[in-house]
Design brief:
Blueprint lengths: L3 E7 L2 H8 L8 E7 L17 E7 L11 H15 L5 E3 L3 E4 L2 E13 L1 E11 L17 H5 L5 H20 L5 H7 L7 E6 L2 E10 L5 E5 L2 E5 L4 E7 L2
Parallel strand pairs: 1-2
Antiparallel strand pairs: 2-3, 3-7, 4-5, 5-6, 6-7, 8-9, 8-12, 9-10, 10-11
Helix pairs in contact: 2-4, 2-5
The structure holds biotin.
Amino acid sequence: MHKVYEFETLDSTNTYLKENWDKLQDEDVVTALHQTSGRGRLGRTWNDSSSSLLFSLLLKDSLDPEKIGLIPLLTGVSVLLAFQDHGIPAKIKWPNDVLVHDRKACGILVEAVTEEKVKAVVDGVGINLNNSSFDPSIKDKAISLSQVLGKPLDRKEMLASFLLHFDSLYQDFQKENNSFLPILKENSYLDGKEATLDYYGENKHVRVLSVLDDGRLLVDDSGKKLALSAGEVSLHSVYTE
Ligand code: BTN
């Protein structure tokens, strides 16, 4: 069972859990209607909107540091299944975005709390739920679920749907059964697309082949195959063929 702590405003639900992980229980969830310093990957900001579903989930027990890199993928699949429950077709843009009709509907930021060893993992999710408009900087790349369905969605119901899928996939994951991976492979947005990525400071133009059985992304780099881990690369841009 998840205990859900609901806040009107926080700086960031991820920051809150990073600062309070030792006082909270494994699998506790924090939500906020507003974030004053919402954070995205690679030091980006996550724009505030009371129409979004913003939450972070705390994972403290039985954490295997080697497997933390898979948590964004498992989370993305849980979001995808929650969207499907609501009749919304989605794809996962490896490693941490969920897209609907080629636009971003969800971003995921997983952070570890490390004190000599990993003490906790904070799994942050931002879903564009009922947004009717977006900041000009992202308006051509973002979409909300209400824009897709033409009606508003219930925040608590979407969270419950996500948690149901997450719990089942996470339980398998802890038993060394990565049942989320075949779902990710089947619903991978990047397959067959050309992308530019930052690979250890070097810009590479590659063709994405597929997601591998271990969750890495297989790309073709001028005839050479490279298997990329999520932490290793940042995708700059994607070109649809
Ligand atoms: C990304 O797309 O770069 C990841 C965005 C993650 C945003 C969510 S919103 C809830 C949680 N709190 C944060 O500050 N960030 C995550």
